[in-house]
Amino acid sequence: MPSPLKILKEQFGYEAFRHKQEEIIQTVLGGKDAFVLMPTGGGKSLCYQIPALLFGGLTVVVSPLIALMKDQVDALRLNGIAAAYLNSSLSFPEQDEIISRLKRGELKLLYIAPEKLFGSGGAFLNVLKEVGVSLFAIDEAHCVSEWGHDFRPEYLELSRLKIEFPSAPIIALTATADHITQKDVLQKLALKEPSVFVSSFNRANIHYSVVPKRESYERLSEYLSLRKEESGIIYTLSRQSSETLAEKLKEDGFSVRPYHAGLDKETRNKHQEMFQKDEINIIVATIAFGMGINKSNVRFVVHMDLPKNLESYYQETGRAGRDGLKSDALLFYGSGDVMKLKRFAEVDDNPEQTRIMLRKLGQMADFCEIRLCRRKHLLNYFGEDASDSCGSCDVCLTKYETFDGTVIAQKALSAVARLEEKFGLSYTVDFLRGSKSEKIRPAHKALKTYGAGADISREEWLRHFKDLISMGYLKQIGDQYPILAMTDKSAQALRGEEKVMMVKSESVENADTKEESYEEELFNRLKNLRAELARKENVPAYIIFSDATLLELAKYLPLSLDDMRRISGFGEVKIARYGEPFLGIISEYCREQKLESRISEKTFIRRPRRFDQKERINETKSESLRMFREGKTVSEIARKRDLAAQTIENHLAFFIATGEVKATDLVAEEKIPRIREAIGKHGNIALKPLKDELGDNYSYGEIRAVIEEMRRKEK
Ligand code: ADP
Ligand code: ZN
Description:
The chain is of the alpha/beta class. The strands form 5 sheets. It has a 7-stranded parallel beta sheet, with helices on both faces. Strands 8-13-12-9-11-10 form a 6-stranded parallel beta sheet, with helices on both faces.
């Protein structure tokens, strides 16, 4: 039996497993039940698709999302895998055809809606019993639980699977389940001593930021202008605002459509499809949009209005960056939204639930207001530990300049005290600023603190108050109309026993670390080719290749099919199918621009290194070293190991660094002085300029060897 890793590489074209994929696959292959909790985009599908290919018989995938089935099946077919789906969107003859293929044993994977599985008086179950099922995968498994937010009664029937197919293992997968839901899923599905796999919910490639909701349209259009070529979702609270915003953006030249429950089904589907197929870039939607979306190249998610809780925020922002590329989550925050949402939070005749909803809303507002790493805040909310600073959210990337704000704090606190802790934020600020408004009571206008803070703008005061609240010098009481009140810490600050450090108003967000460079023009040409192929095959473009794959092509410029094997996303079937047309575009571009392939700059494994991967790399390097010591040449080793010569050279360069191999073992002695000379001129950071200078007689491997040796001697 081939190894899961071999299948991953050859059929799917990926280099290494992510998260706990490998362990999960081994568990399932061992015939055990498994429960998998992994964030969106984490790679749940491979956890059952790879076992499906390794098992003899059929794998049945139960999914509630009819819209997604076709996508999944198309994606598998493009990788040369026999898969089909069965749901109510197919005509009866089409369904019959699939059942015939099932009976002939032609399918490895069958996607099915739960009602189809158990419908027609169990007739279909009997078909499955006849053909035999090796594995059941239950996608969106939280739907079986009434505690989950997306309960589907037809999922309850799945408890019969264990009875009807006692020997087939079940793998249940979901991206959303708290503890209660998780326990419920295990129980409802009657899993037998399941192994439970919980991955971190951190979406490392998403950059979070929150900006004040002011001139938000101008800010938004500025933001979008910088992302003209990218796909994104903009969420609004109401249908009306989704409609008007889409209209306005369209007038301003953006490629955009609205999506909300008020549109008829046909229009909705059309807009969703246009978005999926990259015919438009932006969808302006209410939360009605998203469940059926697995478009992997969504580069940004913008919230024009506050989501009602952090669960929704996490889920909606999670639709960005499923392909693992850097993506953006931007939220416009104004406290007015909190007021607005409070009205919605009230559940008639259910004070308990109202209280929970209001608390969740408050936590959402805290997320926006408190100066804490956004990622940490989110992860802690979901019960996960996180480091204090993630380095890729607005809070972490902003340099906050602090100053001694004791006097300001004292003014604020004494205002609250003078107003006898009976007033809210807005009133208190107006009072401090000496507002002439009639709103301020005459008695208050006579107080000494009235107008004591006139030198500071209203906005700045609001921020100072938020900071004082988050530092614990003040608190807000009440859910509906919160009033400001003192805390245990207030007195110390008032008496001046404690210095209060505050944040200056204009803080600058540091420039984000720049993405590695790639050939932009080529990337666009590759996208065009992809779009053309997608149209021909009538599938969304990202199913042919993800943006991540195209980006690698535009970065490493593979010029042969062998080079292409090293690009993530090119499995054997896709190489055979699409290799040539893509190579054609790349070589044409390289000829025009006089560029060479940069495939040798691609390191063996790109993903963040984890222990097991490191071990694997070391193993493969040591193998090359062993053969080299036996007296084999680089090209002999390459042939024997079925790897590129450049890969072997890279392996050996590693051992030059450790001193186990000498540069002269790899490079003819007379070549070394010229290489050193070139290094003297261009430095030893980038290989490309060195190679350009030295020309065809010198290989990348030789250059690296000399660099490594020079570095070693410098140490
Ligand atoms: P989920 O169902 O958990 O939201 P998917 O299974 O759709 O996620 O996977 C998200 C994307 O990541 C897909 O494009 C998938 O092909 C890709 N992917 C999954 N596992 C890997 C891996 N080990 N290496 C590279 N890409 C992967
Ligand atoms: Zn952060």
